Amino acid sequence: MLKVVGASFGRTGTSSVRLALETLGFGPCHYMKELFTDPAHAEEWLRVVDGGRPDWERLLGDFTSTIAWPAAFFWRELAAAYPEAKVLLIVRDPDSWYASMSRTLYRTRPVGTGTEPSLGVRDRVIERIVWQGTFSGRFADREHAIGVYRAQLDEVRDAVPSGRLIEFTPSSGWKPLCAALGADVPDAPFPVANTTDEYVRRAEQAGVIAPR
């Protein structure tokens, strides 16, 4: 049963916050890697993206929280399906967010529109949810992409009651997140994971992008 619905775009600190949620007992946390590790799971997401009626318990019944895409694309539907769950909105400076997205996810995406049979299922899900569904195929237009990002923040703030919404910046550390979730503050540093440099280094080592 979901207790936390993530409404944030990727590259806002979601990997760090995922580890934090799991440390606080709100795991397992669903994130994009699930598309890469479970082909049947990716196929089910593709069915939903194609307009199929979602079975959220089938997709997310084994998880206690979600973070980033693909689930964040359906944050409204998930918030309605799990009315007792908190809605988590991670906030990052828009310019810094766009720079990170450009250097990481956008730089390593397969070229396509998400309908090509040559793309694997997971890549079709990501292309159609993120690059086409969220950014309308215009992520390279910086002003457009940042406008979409800002609009997402406003939409979540407007739609979710203040008592249910958790607006959080990872640099603020454990205390505000723990207070919002009613959890004890761990005796450990707040996680820092999957930084832009780490992502680029892994992509270079895997041969996905050429080293600079």
Automatic annotation (TrEMBL):
InterPro entries xrefs: P-loop_NTPase, Sulfotransfer_4
Pfam families hit by this protein: Sulfotransfer_4 (PF17784)
Protein name: Sulfotransferase family protein
Higher taxonomy: Bacteria, Bacillati, Actinomycetota, Actinomycetes, Streptosporangiales
